[in-house]
């Protein structure tokens, strides 16, 4: 069994979907949750040199907590090195399988998301680089604005297919 | 009931994101008398007017807040993080 | 039936002819018509039968308040009853059907109700059919329901889609008439984010039906110019066909946009209706005013309509009301209509003005009768004449249409939905609403009359709201208005003398003046009582036209002012909203999210039968060829675990990482048993209590490092436990440094159980799994597949067998489960589902929420010794309450039938042998049952008074619902391996 084929099966097995100007993708990669003391300010060096090669993004996830997302799947030693440096002020929890990342881009992104998101997504109110946790319809997500017309959502793995299906429904009118 | 609650961490959020626990009462000391504990566990005011409650921002930052609201007018006066403070008004 | 369409004019597109049907009859209209205007143009004045008396009814208004012209639109799943013809845009192929008539609209048997009307008056529900009560269901109600009714809903599924949407703005403007457009444009030019919602297909309000000019432009052209400028502002959103139906707390408004209710075949990619939740920092209500009907006899005969409606049909839709009209007015607005009618070639037989001092209107040819009233209208399915009372004399005038101009009721419903009370203004002769909570009223909604004044009012209120928000307002200059008839407020005319026929107040509910008189006479004169006694204002139009007239009449009858009578309570919804819109996309497959285990597809591939557990889909059992009942599959799975080895998906157990320097102390306080001294690399069963002392949840928690624990919870309470831990960490003990992360979804977790499990697991796990190296309750990170994957292995057992739970990153769950099945093949491994899991745990006497049901404390389940002597933990203080330590508590026992062929059910009660089935004799109840292949009979767990000391006692198990009585014996709850030898093997 030691030589069994090990296949990573993401929660949603889908190629990118295009609905007119909208693009829905599942970029894969890794997701780490950083657990700090509530109320702590982010550590001074959040450039994450240990995983810099995977172009990490940092997402606010409530007081003292962040998600790190990378487009490339991190190796165990990379995660260990990061965890070792951040300890003890931050605990690192691998959520690469626990959360599923969805990228939404294209001009109608904001209009599409408004069908499920109560937040004001006006670029002045929710600027590029902002992330927060909120509901998309009935499903809790961490929502980040990664560009003027692009957003990323982190969702619990178990809800990923439902959210993906909901987003497709919300996108239908733009296709 | 408030439509939107001013979370000190997340801003105004719809009430669907929250879970309400009830009156924001302090927990008695472990060795407090039975009367104090009976009161804490079972007895609740049902005020007509201002009321402080524990609200959990379940679908947001997952912090416990003390939300001050008016049960009669449905006005929300403000909310603060139960541990971190940071009172915010709507 | 001749055409009433004028040869020219109006805002209809005569090049776009639209064919439609009414009660199957083909008709023609134009683009720009409403169904009502098209019906009138075709001479179809009779459009429905009234609710109670089945009186012929025609179109009364040209807007949202329409009480009469309710029709059913569409067929099949798209059938929409009770649609206001005045709000329905005409489209090619529209099929409209009249309602509440049988066998046909023209000849209706139910009209006999009119003869029964003495019995159907106010309070008839309460009086006529009070007795005998037994006849209600069989006779009265079916009769009344059949006779008095609205359209019928379809039983077919709605083929269309709906959605919800959030929107945010600085200023919401409700209504896009002259007031609303002026307000919106002021806000737009000031740089604010603006949403303008208007319930009609085309924005403009009265600008679309006036003959006045603004800065030399006709009303419609002026409205279009304003709309064009609004469209050029990127932060302005104009929502036509959108009714703002509710104002909720926190500045949130509800609106429904009819996106595709005006097309025959909706684009399936788009919703037919969209429910908006609009978060607005400020709002201006520019909702205009409803014209008040006048309460004279026969005021409901087809051909009678409000003057404003008649003017709209005439000027906007180019539809003449008839050949010879009369106008009954209490104010100057009736003259604007009279003038327009004459210009359109309709003879105006008379203007009947209730005022003694009405001014002469220049250019009007019609005879004006001053200080006069219409006491009765005559006619059957169409009006034929009116009786005019003047100077104490009655004069009958032949007409084929009659306009009522009874003054205006500002539309204030939204402003009053959150508790603000309208106040009566004698100066306006109307109820006005206060500006409250960031919402202000402007234009006709605030009692303002005339286009110029309304424009100014919109600019002023928008400017005030913008200043409030810190904007520097850019007010618009008021246009020069020419040709506008500005009615000065006139005293309302409530009680018309000389009335003989039924004078309707609430058209939709068939409440007439005499009903209100009766209510006052019988002591129901209070406005809220009168409403319920007469049903005035309780129809789907919510009394838009009738409430103020009813208040006026009650005031007259009681000899007080309308202000003293007051209004009834305003509530959402302003107009009816479809269930489809309220449901949005959340139906069918999208009704609620589904939560899928990472091993869902793996289980599905192996033929699992799934069961919904909360939002999860869990594999229940795995049928094999030849098995015809679920029990066969479950028995096989259970026996295979006991004999060989089985694999069960337990991924849906709640999993929480508890980290931080104070994690140990924190767990010590949330569990009633000790956790501080749990060694690293070990798992421990834990019990959490509620503050009232009862058990909340259980699970195993493992210490992975000094400052890091991995907690599992039951599936059902996973979310609740996480929230509870957060409460403990944040609210109870913020001084503890503890951090929590839900990792339920990160791990695919498999229970692998059975005597041969070690051989199977060892083929996948790199570490030595011998009993010495990985003993009972060991819990560690492990390496899998020669270092290619990391997982976590826990030597814990729910089944009572030698067992492990293996957790691997969820994305690799399927691969690992497949590898284990392959590795286990020589050992007879089989997957097992939650049904078998349930049997195995009952055989071992393990509890679940069947037993932890909110009424038990640790001692009841035999866990008394687990409760640690610690300074504090959740539930500690209340656990020592008298009742929770008193003798005679229910205690967990096992239960077997004396006859192995007999069985009993969960929920059955336990009685002492020979005792009668009474409450006093109740000894407890059965919490779990299963057929145990190991024991060879049904077995159960039960909570029985002093049960721990009654093992061996013969009892009765009684199911009162099914009248079943089984003799059984109380036993130890552990049916399998009581010495726990298997666990330690």
Automatic annotation (TrEMBL), chain A:
Instruction: State the species of origin.
Output: Alsobacter soli
Protein name per Swiss-Prot or TrEMBL: Sarcosine oxidase subunit gamma
From TrEMBL, chain B:
Q: Which GO terms describe its biological process?
A: tetrahydrofolate metabolic process
Tell me which domain of life the UniProt entry assigns to the organism this sequence originates from.
Bacteria
The UniProt transmembrane annotation reads none
GO terms assigned for molecular function: sarcosine oxidase activity
Q: What is this protein called?
A: Sarcosine oxidase subunit delta
Q: Which organism is it from?
A: Alsobacter soli
From TrEMBL, chain C:
InterPro entries (UniProt xref): 2Fe-2S-bd_N (IPR042204), FAD/NAD-bd_sf (IPR036188), FAD/NAD-binding_dom (IPR023753), GcvT/YgfZ/DmdA (IPR028896), GcvT/YgfZ_C (IPR029043), GcvT_C (IPR013977), GCVT_N (IPR006222), Sarcosine_oxidase_asu (IPR006277)
Report any Pfam family annotated for this entry.
Answer: SO_alpha_A3
Is Oxidoreductase among the key words of this record?
yes
Q: Which residues does the UniProt record annotate as the domain SoxA A3?
A: 500-583
Domain FAD/NAD(P)-binding: from-to ranges: 170-415
Gene3D superfamilies hit by this protein = 2Fe-2S iron-sulphur cluster binding domain, sarcosine oxidase, alpha subunit, N-terminal domain, FAD/NAD(P)-binding domain, Probable tRNA modification gtpase trme, domain 1
Sorted UniProt keywords = Oxidoreductase
| Aminomethyltransferase C-terminal domain span | 891-977
Example GO BP:
tetrahydrofolate metabolic process
- Highest taxon in the source lineage: Bacteria
Molecular-function annotations in GO = sarcosine oxidase activity
Residues of the GCVT N-terminal domain = 599-868
Belongs to which family? Belongs to the GcvT family.
Q: What is this protein called?
A: Sarcosine oxidase subunit alpha
Species name: Alsobacter soli
């Amino acid at each position: 069994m030691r030589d069994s084929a090990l296949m990573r099966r993401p929660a949603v097995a889908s190629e990118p979907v295009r609905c007119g100007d909208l693009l829905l993708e599942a970029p894969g990669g890794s997701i780490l949750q950083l657990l700090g003391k509530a109320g702590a300010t982010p550590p001074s060096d959040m450039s994450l040199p240990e995983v810099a090669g995977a172009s990490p993004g940092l997402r606010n996830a409530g007081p003292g907590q962040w998600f790190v997302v990378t487009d490339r799947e991190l190796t165990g030693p990379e995660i260990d090195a990061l965890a070792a440096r951040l300890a003890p002020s931050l605990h690192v929890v691998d959520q690469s399988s626990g959360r599923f990342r969805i990228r939404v881009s294209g001009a109608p992104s904001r209009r599409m998301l408004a069908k499920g998101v109560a937040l004001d997504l006006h670029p002045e109110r929710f600027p590029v680089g902002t992330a927060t946790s909120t509901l998309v319809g009935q499903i809790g997500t961490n929502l980040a604005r990664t560009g003027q017309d692009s957003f990323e959502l982190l969702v619990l793995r178990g809800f990923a297919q439902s959210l993906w299906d909901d987003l497709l429904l919300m996108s239908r009118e733009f296709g | 009931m408030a439509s939107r609650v001013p979370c000190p961490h997340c801003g105004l959020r719809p009430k669907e994101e929250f879970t309400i626990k009830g009156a924001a009462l302090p927990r008695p000391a472990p060795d407090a008398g039975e009367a104090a504990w009976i009161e804490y566990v079972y007895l609740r005011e049902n005020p007509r007017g201002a009321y402080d409650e524990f609200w959990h921002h379940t679908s947001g930052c997952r912090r416990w807040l003390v939300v001050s609201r008016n049960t009669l007018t449905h006005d929300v006066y403000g909310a603060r993080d139960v541990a971190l403070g940071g009172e915010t008004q709507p | 039936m001749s055409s009433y369409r004028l040869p020219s004019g109006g805002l209809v597109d005569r090049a776009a002819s639209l064919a439609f049907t009414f009660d199957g009859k083909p008709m023609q209209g134009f683009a720009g018509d409403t169904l009502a205007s098209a019906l009138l143009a075709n001479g179809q004045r009779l459009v429905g039968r009234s609710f109670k008396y089945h009186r012929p009814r025609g179109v009364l208004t040209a807007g949202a308040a329409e009480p009469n012209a309710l029709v059913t639109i569409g067929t099949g799943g798209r059938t929409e009853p009770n649609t206001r013809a005045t709000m329905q845009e005409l489209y090619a192929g529209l099929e409209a059907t009249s309602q509440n008539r049988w066998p046909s609209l023209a000849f209706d048997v139910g009209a006999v109700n009119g003869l029964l009307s003495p019995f159907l008056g106010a309070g008839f529900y309460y009086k006529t059919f009070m007795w005998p009560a037994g006849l209600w269901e069989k006779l009265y109600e079916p009769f009344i329901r059949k006779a008095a009714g609205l359209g019928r809903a379809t039983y077919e599924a709605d083929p269309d889609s709906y959605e919800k949407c959030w929107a945010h703005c600085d200023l919401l403007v409700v209504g896009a008439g002259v007031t609303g457009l002026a307000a919106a444009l002021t806000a737009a030019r000031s740089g604010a984010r603006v949403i303008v919602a208007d319930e009609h297909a085309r924005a403009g309000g009265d600008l679309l039906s006036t003959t006045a000019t603004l800065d030399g432009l006709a009303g419609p052209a002026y409205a279009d110019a304003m709309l064009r400028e609004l469209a050029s502002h990127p932060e302005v959103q104009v929502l036509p066909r959108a009714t703002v139906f509710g104002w909720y707390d926190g500045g949130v408004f509800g609106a429904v946009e009819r996106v595709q209710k005006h097309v025959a075949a909706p684009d399936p990619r788009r919703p037919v209706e969209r429910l908006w939740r609009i978060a607005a920092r400020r709002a201006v209500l520019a909702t205009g005013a409803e014209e008040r009907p006048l309460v004279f006899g026969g005021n409901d005969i087809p051909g009678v309509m409000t003057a404003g409606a008649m003017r709209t049909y005439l000027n906007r839709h180019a539809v003449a009301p008839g050949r010879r009209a009369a106008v009954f007015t209490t104010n100057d607005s009736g003259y604007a209509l009279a003038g327009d009618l004459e210009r359109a070639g309709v003879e105006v037989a008379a203007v009947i003005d209730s005022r003694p001092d009405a001014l002469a209107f220049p250019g009007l040819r019609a005879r004006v009768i001053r200080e006069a009233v219409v006491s009765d209208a005559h006619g059957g399915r169409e009006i034929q004449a009116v009786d005019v009372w003047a100077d104490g004399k009655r004069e009958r005038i032949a007409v084929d249409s009659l306009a009522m101009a009874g003054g205006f009721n500002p539309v204030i419903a939204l402003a009053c939905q959150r508790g603000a009370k309208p106040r009566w203004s004698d100066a306006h002769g109307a109820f006005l609403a206060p500006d409250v909570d960031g919402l202000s009223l402007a234009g006709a909604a605030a009692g303002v009359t005339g286009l110029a004044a309304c424009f100014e009012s919109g600019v002023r209120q928008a400017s005030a709201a913008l200043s409030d928000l810190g904007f520097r307002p850019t007010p618009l200059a008021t246009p020069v208005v020419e040709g506008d008839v500005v009615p000065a407020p006139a005293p309302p005319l409530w009680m018309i003398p000389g009335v003989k026929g039924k004078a309707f107040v609430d058209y939709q509910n068939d409440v007439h003046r005499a009903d209100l008189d009766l209510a006052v006479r019988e002591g129901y004169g209070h406005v809220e009582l009168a409403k319920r006694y007469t049903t005035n204002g309780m129809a789907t139009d919510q009394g838009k036209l009738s409430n103020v007239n009813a208040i006026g009449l009650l005031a007259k009858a009681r000899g007080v002012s309308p202000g003293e009578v007051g209004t009834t309570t305003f509530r959402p919804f302003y107009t009816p909203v479809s269930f489809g819109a309220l449901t949005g996309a959340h139906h069918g497959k999208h009704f609620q999210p589904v939560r899928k285990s990472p091993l869902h597809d793996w289980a599905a591939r192996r033929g699992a039968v799934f069961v919904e557990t909360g939002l999860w889909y869990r594999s229940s059992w795995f049928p094999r060829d030849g098995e015809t009942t679920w029990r066969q599959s479950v028995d096989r799975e259970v026996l295979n675990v006991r004999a060989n080895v089985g694999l069960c998906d337990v991924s849906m157990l709640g999993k929480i990482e508890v980290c931080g320097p104070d994690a140990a102390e924190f767990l010590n306080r949330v569990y009633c048993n000790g956790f501080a001294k749990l060694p690293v690399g070990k798992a421990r069963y834990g019990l959490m209590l509620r503050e009232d002392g009862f058990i909340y949840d259980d699970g195993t928690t493992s210490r992975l490092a000094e400052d890091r624990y991995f907690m599992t919870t039951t599936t059902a309470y996973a979310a609740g436990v996480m929230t509870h831990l957060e409460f403990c960490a944040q609210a109870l003990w913020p001084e503890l440094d503890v951090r929590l992360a839900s990792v339920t979804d990160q791990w695919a977790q498999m229970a692998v159980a059975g005597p041969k499990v070690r051989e199977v697991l060892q083929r996948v796990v790199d570490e030595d799994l011998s009993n010495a190296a990985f003993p009972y309750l060991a819990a560690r990170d492990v390496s899998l597949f020669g270092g290619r994957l990391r997982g976590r292995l826990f030597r814990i057992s729910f089944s009572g067998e030698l067992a492990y739970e293996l957790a691997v990153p969820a994305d690799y769950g399927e691969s690992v489960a497949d590898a284990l099945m392959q590795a286990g093949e020589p050992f007879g491994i089989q997957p097992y589902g939650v049904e078998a899991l349930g049997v195995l745990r009952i055989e071992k006497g393990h509890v679940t929420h069947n037993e932890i049901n909110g009424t038990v404390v640790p001692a009841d389940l035999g866990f008394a010794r687990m409760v640690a002597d610690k300074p504090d933990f959740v539930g500690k203080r209340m656990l020592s309450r008298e009742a929770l330590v008193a003798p005679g508590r229910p205690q967990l026992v096992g239960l077997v039938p004396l006859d192995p062929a007999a069985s009993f059910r969960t929920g059955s009660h336990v009685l002492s042998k020979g005792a009668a089935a009474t409450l006093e004799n109740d000894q407890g109840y059965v919490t779990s049952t299963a057929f145990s292949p190991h024991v060879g009979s049904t077995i159960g767990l039960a909570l029985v008074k002093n049960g721990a000391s009654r093992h061996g006692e013969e009892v009765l198990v009684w199911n009162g619902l099914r009248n079943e009585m089984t003799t059984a014996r109380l036993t130890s709850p552990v049916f399998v391996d009581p010495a726990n030898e298997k666990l330690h093997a």
